[in-house]
Amino acid sequence: xxxxxxxxxxxxxxxxxxxxxxxxxxxxxxxxxxxxxxxxxxxxxxxxxxxxxxxxxxxxxxxxxxxxxxxxxxxxxxxxxxxxxxxxxxxxxxxxxxxxxxxxxxxxxx
Length: 110
Fold this sequence. Notes:
alpha/beta; about 15% strand; two-stranded parallel sheet; single chain
């Protein structure tokens, strides 16, 4: 899985821009893998420069997958924000549903 991941062009630049402005950033993934694998992947992509380890989580940590609203509540709790302050970027319908059901704003990446 890790060796097959492709980083979206400009992803690190967007994360750097947001981090420089103090915008809290986090990741919630539906990965069935271990949290170690998730952290290895985000490290390989360079995301760990902008996202604290405590804000990188997924179903492997909580046992709950998106679109359940609790998934994003776990994340917003760790980010220190409420769901209505979250813009959740995703690439699947389950991401949009998770955002809407938790009170966050979805942004679907096509």
